[in-house]
Specification:
By secondary structure, the protein is α/β, with parallel strands linked by helices. It contains nine helices and 16 strands. It has three domains: 128 residues, D-Maltodextrin-Binding Protein, domain 2, CATH 3.40.190.10; 86 residues, D-Maltodextrin-Binding Protein, domain 2 (3-Layer(aba) Sandwich); 67 residues, Alpha-Beta Plaits (2-Layer Sandwich), CATH 3.30.70.120.
Amino acid sequence: MEGSETRLKLGIPKGSLQEATFGLFKKAGFEFRMSNGRSYHPQVNDEEIEPLLLRPQEIPRYVEQGILDAGLTGKDWIEDNESDVVEVAELAYSKATLNPIRVVLAAQNGSSINSVTDLAGKRVATEYVRLTQNYLKKHDVTAHVEFSWGACEVKVPELADAIVVNTETGSSLRAHNLKIIDTLLTSTTRFAVNRTSWSDEWKRRKIENLVMLLQGALNAEILVGLKMNVSKDNLSELLDILPALKTPTLSPLSNEGWVALEIIIPEQTVRDILPRLKRAGAEGIVEYPLNKVVY
């Protein structure tokens, strides 16, 4: 095939999530380069991908309309746009951590707003207008919801009684003396696809391959490999210690009484089990990072 049929128009979130997204793609084998700081058309080392940098708020709408074949955007923005797209994969990463973000209702500490019902007749500033309106409707509360171009925290209490914003760590809310009243939505990044594009055989296969590599890179973020030499006499005890994804790989060594053992485990467990492995007789223990882990 020739032409646009063999190119995937892909929306990349511009702004705070941009560098984290570029970093994830790099680990998956796709390196983006910016020709200049204001370019909306980054270059990528895959001729079959046509990337476009856009605000994540806009990506669901353009994917639904078919202007983009696919894009990475938050579940929060898909819900706020009420976009009809195919959510092919959840990619649990964000700008600072691997944790999801929360869309929360917040008000000033010490204010009379302690629940959604206290918003009756109040002003709520947010980027999530539809999401907030649907939330209020669900709780049968009438309040004035106004769109805000970010920086909602500074509007309380002079310009708004409460805000609905996304937060990853809550630090900005605390810095502005705000308290969280309720969580409207927990959101992660989604690989959203246009329904017509998903029905196209070539594009679907390209998307599936791309998602597999991205998920493999994400899996590797929390895992490491361990290698060690183990006496066969101590093997049973060591195997009881190891929380392997699958049965550990065992390879014979030139010394018939020993084997080489290799496993993949969560990085956070290494500090707890490595001393135990050493005491159980493991030798030559090597920990190494992973680039991709595909289940």
